[in-house]
Amino acid sequence: MTNTWIGQPLPRVDGRAKVTGAARYAAEFNQPGQVHAVIVSSTVGLGRIESIDTEAVSHLPGVLAIISHLNAPRLAYREHRGFIDPVIGERLHVLQDDRVHFFGQPVAVVVAETLDQAERAASGVRISYDAQTPAVEMDAGAANAITPDGPSLDTSRGDPELALAAAPARLDVTYEIERQNHNPMEPHGTIAVWTDDRLTLWSKSQFVVNEAAEIEAVFGLPAGSVQVISPFLGGAFGSSLRTWPHVTLAALAARVVGRPVKLVLTRRQMFYTTGYRPHEIQRIALGAQSDGRLQALIHEGIGETSRYEQFVESLTTVSSYLYSCPNVRTRYRLAPLDESTPTYMRAPGEASGVFALECAIDELAVELGLDPIELRLRNEPTIDEGGRIPFSSRSLRECYARGAARFGWDRRDPRPGSMTDGRLLIGWGMASATYPAARAAASARARLVADGTAHVETAASDMGPGTYTSMTQVAAEALGLAPDEVHFELGRSDFPTCPPHGGSWTMASVGSAVHAACVAVRELADSIEARQGMSSLNGATRRDVYRELVTRRGGLPIEAEASSAPGPERQQYSMHAFGAVFVEVAVDPELGTIRVRRALGAYAAGRIVNPRLARSQCTGGMVGGIGMALMERTVLDSRDGRVVNASLADYLVPVNLDIETLEVEVVEEDDPYVNPLGVKGIGEIALVGMAPAIANAVYHATGRRVRRLPIRIESLLAA
Ligand code: MOS
After folding, report:
1. Cβ of 464 less than 6 Å from ligand 1
2. 630 and 545, same domain (yes or no)
3. If you measure from the C-alpha of residue 346 to the centroid of ligand 1, how many angstroms do you get, rounded to a whole number?
């Protein structure tokens, strides 16, 4: 196999379609005869619906249906445990009874000829409730925390309590991260069309095969009845992994009125029914010898969840493998509250867990008077001590070294408040980053067609990382074609099946499948060529060969489908990407404002398929980390559970003016175990270390240790 296209900084193959508006997103697939649905959301946070009065609006022009639990068809809600949906509890059964579980829950849906008509009618539906005060306060929830059902997520080795008590240096601190919402640019939306008992959904989704299976289960339909199409996503960050209630409502509305229905959530509604990063509280206790070597590590975390499902994420996992330590305990609990269910968001689990651990390591470095990199190097493990297996590869030392050199870390004066620029306080902070290099079974199909080009398809998604481009490169390389001789398609549930487009799984899982399918079709072509003794084609391009082969078959394409799955190597090696993040902040000591002047991430994530896309992924993740550290928080009103800042005016995200210099240093790795392509995925790790690096930089600038995210002006001005 030639090695031509993998590793090249190709521009996005879909770049032109995106900037010219030719790329179509879910809500743009308008259908003939289409009508519009608008959700009526609960205005109480807990209770029962007493009555629904539609008199004032049901006869307004254009109104076709007002659907609520009073008249909605009963839905099957067959069991369906896709591995992205919480496996514990039971999902919301929408419009099936009078109960309200959380503020913003859909309680009715209005269908009308135009969007304006539907919105007007929806605003006039009068609902009275028997309302109670919902429990939404994290402190109260944490006091009544429960152990998640299912296999224990807690881990333990040695005797950490004893070791902590005996350690010459120790700290025991609590960190908190407020709730965050994904807020992708593109709102969630679905267009639903029934043809007899078959349903087509153009729907924003990171997991089309799961969305089809979930809607089949909800409506009690046989497998294969639902087709989900989602060729482009305008960002998602995990919020389109699950199939949320609005998809069911679009399909339900379309069935009731017998017309194609479009349903798009408002920005406000997205804060309630498309998941969020849970509010989490974490305790870290560290005990070390005076030379810095860790003796005890206790990591306890509590995350909020709903009462009808239990959402769990890998909050404390990182503490079992990031550092060498003989005595470690991790514990993970849930705080069930009267809320909708959280979900995976931007490096879920690790982003939050690493924040706590990496701030605590920085605090320990200060206590010991050690450079934070030196402290980490003294605790660098030789194996994964939690899993008691070697790492497939781990280039964290290299990340520290390369990152520190490029950042100029040796010019840092460690004394807090010692570095200034005029009246501004300058802080330099760093943190480690890590994210699992996971992989799941995936499949793909490759077809050589009459003009000698290839069509490659798989049910993956592309929410922004550049899946279209990277898969085209993998396919081109395996087929011996140029990228413009490969036509790659994704985002249809009837394509060969794929795992969710998330968790940095796509390149490892789908890339391996695309590679396998292309190798298979090339071998098929080679065997046909050999059988036919086509020596006349010696010296021809691969495209010429494929064209000739297909022509001799009367134009019948040569096709192969292949699957690729992880094997026993997953039990033999611990597989993670690693990185080191360096940040410079400038703090105004009078105003408390914090600016990230520059950030540098050094990442080792296996082989890089496309350095240009990888850099874009990394800077995107770093921007998300700045949001997490300094801006993003979803604020609930404790009286009724409403989100008081459910808009992009009030929920702050970084904009261009908030971002200055972002640098990315890629540390190349040759990992022969992780998967056939040797890739680890780079979508999430770039967010992971940012928040602790920023918090550590704020400490360095000000001497103030802020242990609650986001760090706000108030955090620094408070006495
Ligand atoms: Mo990402 S939170 O796994 O979509």
Report:
1. no
2. no
3. 5
Q: How far apart are CA 306 and CA 487, in angstroms?
A: 43
Residue at a domain's end among 533, 565, 597:
565
Tell me, using a 6 A CB cutoff, whether residue 348 lines ligand 1: yes
Ligand 1 contacts CB of residue 505 (under 6 A): no
- Ligand 1 within 6 A of 502 CB? yes
State which residues form the domain around 556.
Answer: 15-23+440-565
Residue 425 CA to ligand 1 center (angstroms) comes to: 35
> Ligand 1 pocket check: which of 210, 498, 684, 685 to mutate, most ligand atoms within 8 Å of Cβ?
684
The pLDDT of residue 13 is: 98
Same domain, 501 and 520: yes
CA of 238 to the centre of ligand 1 (A): 4
Does the pLDDT at position 166 exceed 80? yes
161 occurs within a structural domain:
no
pLDDT tens string 486-502: 999 999 999 999 999 99
- Give the residue-averaged pLDDT of 54-76: 98
Give the nearest ligand 1 atom to 503 CA.
Answer: 3
Question: Do 306 and 198 share a domain, yes or no?
Answer: no
User: What is the pTM for the complete model shown?
Assistant: 0.97
**Residue 113 annotated in active site:** no
Give me the pLDDT at residue 111, please: 98
Residues 302, 422: one domain? yes
Nearest to 210 by CA among 392, 371, 82: 82
Q: Which of 81-85, 344-348, 446-450, 580-584 has the lowest mean pLDDT?
A: 81-85
CATH number of the CATH domain containing 251? 3.30.365.10
* Non-local CB neighbours of 602 within 8 Å, separated by 6+ positions: 398, 399, 400, 402, 403, 406, 579, 580, 581, 582, 665, 666, 667
Q: What pLDDT was estimated at residue 719?
A: 61
Q: What contacts 102, CB < 8 A, 6 or more positions away?
A: 42, 45, 46, 134, 272, 306, 338, 339, 340, 641
Among all chains, which residue has been given the structure tokens 């296996």?
A: 606
229 CA distance to ligand 1 centroid (A)?
19
**Which tens digits make up the pLDDT trace of 472-488?**
999 999 999 999 999 99
Could you tell me if 305 and 206 lie in one domain?
no
Whose CA is closest to 688, among 629, 630, 633, 632?
A: 629
Q: Residue 176 domain-assigned?
A: no
Orientation angle between helical segments 506-532 and 542-552, nearest 10 degrees: 60
Q: What is the pLDDT of residue 535?
A: 60
Catalytic residue among 477, 559, 684, 714: 684
Question: Is residue 650 located within the same domain as residue 663?
Answer: yes
**C-alpha dihedral sign at 153, 334, 331, 621:** positive
CA 684 to ligand 1 centroid distance, Å: 8
The domain tally of the chain equals: 3
Is 141 near ligand 1, meaning CB less than 6 Å away?
Answer: no
Per-residue pLDDT, 1: 43
Which of 521, 543, 565 delimits the end of a domain?
A: 565
What per-residue confidence (pLDDT) applies to 85?
A: 78
Residue labelled with tokens 């494929």: 546
Report angle CA 522, 525, 528 to the nearest 5 degrees.
150
Determine which residue's CA is closest to atom 4 belonging to ligand 1: 238
- Ligand 1 pocket residue status of 344, Cβ below 6 Å: yes
pLDDT at 540: 87
* Ligand 1 contact via 323 beta carbon (within 6 Å): no
Residue to mutate, 241, 507, 688, ligand 1, most ligand atoms under 8 Å from C-beta: 241
Cα dihedral sign for 62, 64, 70, 75?
Answer: negative
* Chain centroid offset of residue 257 CA: 35
Residue 172 falls within a domain, yes or no? no
Residues 380 and 445 in one domain: no
Q: Is 346 in the pocket of ligand 1 (CB under 6 A)?
A: yes
423 plus 361 within the same structural domain: yes
Q: How far does residue 682's CA lie from ligand 1's centre (Å)?
A: 12
695 in a structural domain: yes
Share of the chain above pLDDT 90, in %: 96
Would the CB of 275 count as within 6 Å of ligand 1? no
Query: What's the pLDDT at 536?
Result: 61
